[in-house]
Amino acid sequence: MLAVQVTTGSVLYDQFEDSYLRGALETRLVHLQPGEILIPPGLSAETLRTLSAYVGYKVDYTERPEPLLEHANRAGVRVAFANPDLLDYSAARCRCTEFYADNSADGLLSRVFDLPESVVVALALLIDYLRTFNLDRALITPQHATGKQPFVPFHTRLHMLLSATALQTLSVFTVESASSSDDAAVQLKELLRPGGRSGGVHSTHMRGGDGSLFSVMDFTRSQFGRRLLRRWIAHPLVSPDKLRDRIDAVEYLKGIVEATENDGLEAEDDCRRTLASIHGKIGQLVDLERGLCRIHY
Question: Quick check: 79 and 37 in contact, CB under 8 A?
Fold first, then answer.
């Protein structure tokens, strides 16, 4: 499996074994929430059934129907079909080599060939598909421009992987009936609002959000901060030491913000004043991740 966010240059990969019910695949779909899915030929009936349930209409490579967005339960989820000529590992390897060589990104080839063979095949299929829209350069966004590793594993041992059932049952990111929980979410968000400050990017436009746990916790002031908070919630830390380090860092920054609002910072404390100034202006920044990626390709 390979997933790319073309607006930020984020590329995630994974290789996993699944059960008959395709619980692992469903978990990854719920975490990633893709807007478009590229389907290769040869998928099992169980896998196609899971994908069909996610997009809201029947997915069948043999028929290759043209999906209509109005038939999808999740607005905007589209299905496309991959080039069958690239399913062979040798052909996929050649396509990847050609792509990165043509774009003067030979340094990434060693990283590509360290990936599992199934991921290399998925990468070749994605290169071929994105090239149609001139978006293939999103796969070679330089690390120094975005601060990201070129290929990031979907799951590591440092983080907990919440199942699709857990995410849906706990309403972490979505709720079955947003209208019924909206008022309760607004009240809870008001109770959690730090110091009576205005809410974040998400809550400002959606009152209490959609009633999910994420919308209630979201007091971020920038889009990239919101994406970071979402990653933290979706992949909780396992190590107590790293979790304490994160809490300490958040508490430190929170103390600076509260001291600034109460005029409690000393004039000579330049570092703390600089951080407080950044906090006040960060909501006015453009989305740097997306901007750098757009400049690149």
Answer: yes
